[in-house]
Amino acid sequence: MKDLFPKDFFWGGAVAANQFEGAYLEDGKGESTQDHVSAAAFNKTRQVYENIEKDVYFPAHDGIDFYHNYKEDIKLFAEMGFKMFRFSIAWSRIFPTGVEDTPNEAGLKFYDNVFAELKKYNMEPLVTISHYESPFYLTKKYNGWYGREVINHFSRYCEVLFERYKNDVKYWITFNEINCLTLDIKAFQGGSILYNEKGDAVQPKEIPEYMRYQALHHQFVTSAKVVKLAHEINSNFKVGCMLAYICQYPLTCKPEDMMLSNEAMQLRNYLCGDVHVRGYYPSFAKAYYKENDINIKVEDGDEQILKDGTVDFCAFSYYQSICVSTDPNEERIQGNILDGIKNPYVESSDWGWQIDPVGLRWSAHQLYDRYQVPLIIAENGLGANDILEEDRTIKDPYRIDYLRSHIKEIGKAISEGVDILGYTWWGPIDIVSLGTGEMKKRYGFIYVDRDNEGKGTLKRYKKQSFEWYKKVIASNGNDLD
Ligand code: BG6
């Protein structure tokens, strides 16, 4: 099938500030929450530190040094023909502690320069305002998003961005994968919450559930407030939400498995999607909160704010599908954000994530049927253990296979009526893994010479997939050979 993709389809790539910028405290930047997270070994959990310890390696401090290489890196993206580049702004570069009255000019200037570079190559920016980080000071002062005060600080940060970049950016995303706050492991990454009820600094899993949902409520209110603000500042702005689409099939057609899958899809995906797109909490969320004694504080006026600030599009990440089952003895597998039951019909990546391109088409249908707003596939990708050969080449046919199979399914979804604006591959250049902090887990079309301990020249090398993606973009998705 040919010509499935619209002419103005946004092909591109996506990254996040704390996984690639580096330049940790440069030009007035403050400490960010992710600057406090250590690296971990293969599939192990990263630790959160209250203080920056000298003998601990924090990979966000250097990233891949995009801060000093942005011109060269964007040039490489342009060479592949990118039409869109998704990246996040580091809040602590603009407001080092989050509470200042005046923004840090040097931080704003850095992003001026990035936008100018993108404009040079006609690349549309897709800006994530919050990608798993906040100024660390807000964690110390308010326990991150658990504190309602953060709503105003974030709104001020957004106002500064919207005013400053009103002629540079059209597409904005408020919170990356906001629904991750429904998961215990993400209390710090998603909500910047470090302290338990007693005020002790603890690892994310020890934060009580109600605190996560309170923080989530604050993010919902903030997101809705800034969507409204964005439209007031520039009526051409398009502001979207972003979900980690956690695709959970029932392992069998046993009615109880079907119901389990339904409940899991509601709680993990649609709670957040519904609030963002429809503007109110769904009834299943209220029932879940009641059943689990989650008493969150909702202030007068919050419901109206949610109604008035619904989003223009829905962005989502999709890496894999998992299964759910009522049988506790089924084999479990690793996953992005959430692990699950093994699906006997699909293969897995080096990191154990199941590879299911049809699941991407299915997910796009589910979201579009439910919300009827344009979609952006803001993340999709394969983390693999690439080898830099002696002749400085990198052969990654497995990445090409992954891409090909997923792009085919996107084309089919579009031909079946799903409105998809763009596809930004996760990590078009190798970056630090969010989950483990490893460099060894590579997603890029561009290899970066850096290892798990932070050693290496940081030199960039094109992989085999570089030319392949370039060809796909040039043919607007027609040449997938
Ligand atoms: C997404 C995040 O969940 O998964 C990214 O938005 C992250 O920040 C990506 O990098 C891939 O996960 P990982 O753990 O392989 O880096």
TrEMBL record:
Keywords: Glycosidase, Hydrolase. Transmembrane segments: none annotated. The keyword DNA repair does not apply. SUPFAM superfamilies: (Trans)glycosidases. InterPro entries: GH, GH_1_N_CS, Glyco_hydro_1. Its EC number is 3.2.1.86. Pfam families: Glyco_hydro_1. One of its GO terms (molecular function) is 6-phospho-beta-glucosidase activity. GO terms for biological process: carbohydrate catabolic process. One of its GO terms (cellular component) is cytosol. Belongs to the glycosyl hydrolase 1 family. This is Aryl-phospho-beta-D-glucosidase BglH. It comes from Clostridium vincentii. The gene is bglH_3.
